[in-house]
Amino acid sequence: MRHSPRRLGFLAILAATAGAPRAASALEVPNVGGEPLNIDLTNTSVVAYHFDNRNSLPTKPEALVDDKYGEWIDRFNLQLNWWRFQLGLRIDGATYFNTTTRIDARKMANAYSTGHDPKEPGNFRPSTFDQAQTGSDYSNQLFRELQSRYLRTYYPSKLWVGYSQKGLDVTVGDFYVQLGRGLVFSVRKIDELAIDTTVRGGKISGSYEKGPMRLSAMLFAGQMNPLRVDEVSGRRLHGEASPLFFMFPKAGDLTTYGYDEQGNVLTYIDKPRPSYLADNVVGGRVEGGTNLVVVGVNGSYLKRTSHTVDNLKCIAEHPDDAQWASDCASRYPDFTSTNPTRMHDTIRTYGVSLAFPDLAKHGDAYFEVARQEQRDGHISAIDGSGSPTSQQKDLSGYALYGAVTGHAGPVTLTLEGKHYRSFFPLAANIDTNTKGFGAPEFDAVSYSVPPTVEPIYTEALGGSPSSCMTGGRARVDYRFDPHTSIYAWLGRYVSSSEISTNNECLSKEELRSADDPRTFTWDTAIGSDLGFEHGRSHSRAWVGARTTDRAAAIDTGAGELSSVFYREGYVRYDVVKHVAGPVSVQAQGVHRHRHEPASFADAWWEGENYTAVQWAPHVAGIFGYEYTNREGCAPGLSGTMCHYFNGGVQWRSLSSKSVLHQLFDTVGVFVGQRRGAVRCVSGVCRLFPPFEGARLEIVSRF
Amino acid sequence: MPRWLRTAARAAFASVFLLAASCGGGSAGTAGASAPKSGGAPDFNLPSLDGKMVRLSDYAGKSVVLIDFWSTTCDPCMMEMPHLVELYEKHKDQGFVVLAISLDGPESRALVGSMAHDKGMVFPVLLDEETTVVARYNPKREMPFAVIIDRNGSVVHKRGGYTPGDEKTLAAEVEKALAAN
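^ inputs. structure came back:
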C-alpha cells in the first residue's frame, strides 16, 4: 500500500497527539484581537450494512432495492465563536456501496416477471403485456426507484454567520424559527423524524427592557432549506439550481426502455427535474408585556415557486406527445397533491398570542388564535389565452389553542384545548408522487406544527385528523418528592377529517354523504414516576387506552354493523435497578394491542423490550426484542407473529483528555433486526422501514 | 476540489474573519467594555418559564454554569433531574448556576411547567422551542446533554446521555470547575 506524504503526515500527527493531554472540549487557538477564538467540532459518522429486511414485495419497487447494501452517513458540524460572532457550517455526506445496480434491477425484474423467484410466495404475474414488455416495464419501475436513491452526496447543508449582543441578534444563513406555539410557523430540528429544515436567509431580533416592561421584535426572510438526503431511505431531494444553495445536489437524466411494435428496443431519456420547488417565506413577531402578561403578534407569508401555467402552455403545444410532456415537466416542473397546502402557492398565516407566564407563583397560561389563508390555488387547466379554466379554490381556516397549568402543593393540573377548522401544517413544496423524480419520504416536511394536544406518539390514522378537530386534555400530577410522582390524563377529541379528507370541515349534510364524517375519541392513561435508592433506581411506567368511534355504525363487510374506528390499549415503561457499584440493569419497552378495522380485519399486538446492562459511566450492553403480528408483517404470510432480535454495545469516553477520547467520544454498535414502524411527533408521522443489519456510530467532539 | 474553488473558499473565510476582527478591534473600548467576559461559549438569549429573558452572558464569566438540555419526553432526563437539583442546592452559594434548557416543541411544551414543578427545578428553566441553542451546543440533539462553562466563560466539559452513576462524574466535573478559580 502506498501512502502519500500528506497521509503520512496526518498519521504522524494523530499518533503524536493521541495520548497528549487536552485541556478543554473545544479546540484551543490563540486569541484574535484580544478575544478568544473557539472552534467547536462535532462529527457524527454512521457506517451500516443492510441485510434483507424481509419487506420485499414484487409490487413495491421501493422495498425491493433496500436490501444488501452499505452506507456511510456523515454529519460534520464546525462552529467558530469569536467575540460576538459565530460562524457555523454543517457538511452532510452520504456514501453508498454495493447498492442495487441497473443490471441487478433488470435481473430482478426478469425473476419477478416470470414468477419463478423462490424467495417470494407472492402473486405477481405478468398481466396485460407479453413477458418481454412486462419485464421491461418492471425494470423501468426499478430504474425509476433507483433514480434518486443511494446517490453519493456531499454538500454544505447548513451555513450561517451570527452576531449576538445584549438586545440584538442577527443571523445570516441558516436558522430555525418558531412563532408562538407553532401554529403560524415552526421549523426546528426534529431528529425523531429525520427532519432538520431551516430557513436560509436573514433573521434579526431585538429586545428592549425597562423595569418590568419588555418589548421584542423579530423579522426573518429567506428560502426554506430542507435536508437533501433522507438518511432512512437513502432518497435524495433535488431542488432547482439556485445561487443560495451552492454545491447542493442536482437531479440527473432518467433513462428507461420500451419496445416498438416490431419488438425493437426504444430508449427514453427524461431530462432532470426537481422534486422540491423553492418555498420563500417572510415572517415576524412582535411581543410586549411584563413578567405577568405578554402579548404577541405573529405572522408568516409563504410564497411558493410555481411553473404551473408555463407547464400547461408547454404541454398544449403538443398535447398528444408523452415525451414532449416529459420535457415540459423538466423545463417547468409542476407537482400535484391531495394536501391543500401544497395546492396553493400563497399562504398567509397570522395570529395573536396572550401569555401569563406567572400566575401568582401557582402556574401559567397561554392562549393563541391564528388564521390561515390559502390563496393562488393550483391551476389544472387553461384556455387558449393562458387564463385558468380550472383552479383550486381559496381555502381559509382558523385555530384556537389554549394551555393552563396550575399547581398547589403537591398537585399540578394541566389543561390543554384546541379548536381547529381548515387549519393545516404548512407542507413543503415537494413532489411526493412522480415516479423517478419524486421524493415521497419527504412528505412529512412541513413549516408549521399546530399542537395536537395529545401524547406525542399518537398516530394519525387517516385523513388529516387535526385539521378539523375540537378537543382537549386534562392531566393531573401528584408529587410525593422530586423522585416520586403519579399522574393521569384524559383527553376527548371530535374530528371531522379523520376518516377521510375533508378540507372544508363540512358536515354530513354539507357533504351530501351517506356517512357522517365525524369521529369521537377518548384517550386516557395513568402512570407513575418512582425513584428509590437515592435516585439510582427508577421506575417510570404508564398504561393507557384510546378509543375512536365513528358517529354512525357502518357495515363491516361481514354482515355486521360497527362504529369502531380504532382501539388501542398499551403499557410503556422504563425501569432501572441499581445492582451494585457502577452496575445497573435497565428494561425499557412498549406493548400495544391495536385494532383498526378499516385497514386490518384483525386486531394485532406489537411491541418491544430493550434490556440494558450499564457499567457507569462508560459502557452499556443492550439486548432488544421486538414483535408484531400485524397483517402483512411478513410478505406473503398472514396470522404470523414476526420476531426481531438485536443487540448492541455503547461506549462513552466522557473525557477530552486526549485526541482519542475526543475522536471516540461516543461509540455505538448495533447488530440485528428492528421492525418497521410509524413514528410520530405532534401528529406528523412517517414510516420507518424494517432494518436488518449492522450499524456502527461514532460521535467525535473537539 | 478545483483550485479556483479552494481559493474562493479561503478568500470568503478570511473576509469573514477580517470583518469580524475589524469590528472587534474598533469597538473594544466602547461596546467591548460592556461585553461579557467570554471564553468562547456562544452567547444566547432565551425566554424562561417564568417569563423573563435569560442571557448566558449574564452568568458566564462570573459563575460556573451547567447547561442541561432536556425535555419532558426524555426518560433519562427525568431520572437525572433530581440529581441536578441536589447538585445545584449543594453548590449554588459557591457561584454555581444550572440553566435547564427545555427542547420541548409545540407537541409537549404545555407540560414543561408541571414537570418543572414535579421535579423541584428551582434553577432557571429556559425554553429553546426553536432548537437554535441546541443546534449550536449539541448538534446531535442528544438528551440529556450537559455542558459545563467555567468562570472564564470557556466550555470545559460536554457529556451526552445519562446512566445511573453519571451524577458522580458530573458532580466531580462541576467541583473541579468551581475549584479552578
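The beta strands of chain B are 45-47, 53-55, 64-70, 96-102, 125-127, 145-149, 155-160. Chain B touches chain A through 73 residues (CB under 8 Å).
thumbs up if we can close this ticket
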